[in-house]
Amino acid sequence: MAKQVKVTEYQTRVYTLLQQIPKGKITSYAAMARALNSSPRAIGGALRSNPFAPEVPCHRCIASTGFVGGFKGDWEKVPSGQNQDEKLKLLAQEGVRFDSKGMLVDKSCWWDDFKV
After folding, report:
1. pTM metric for this prediction
2. Shortest CA distance to 18 belongs to which of 51, 53, 58?
3. Which of 8, 14, 48, 89 is at a distance of 20 to 30 A from 38, taking alpha carbons?
């Protein structure tokens, strides 16, 4: 029997929005917050506990500065950076590249054409 995952109404809204982001594109916590009339921190909180990753692609959300940020609640070097490495790998497989400092290389990857 499959385990049922419980998410809040807000998380459902965030995860639904995430599924609009095309492969090879990224968005920011701020852009998602604008689309949902919310806050970047609230978006981050929902993404931190995304039980459907990577199928619901929270790896496609990064900081508005272009920094890759965390993945699954883990930031670079905390405790191991393993999750950030996984996020970078998933994005690289989609053609989104970052420099050695974790900054987005190709600004044309930004996307925020959300339909709410």
Report:
1. 0.87
2. 58
3. 89
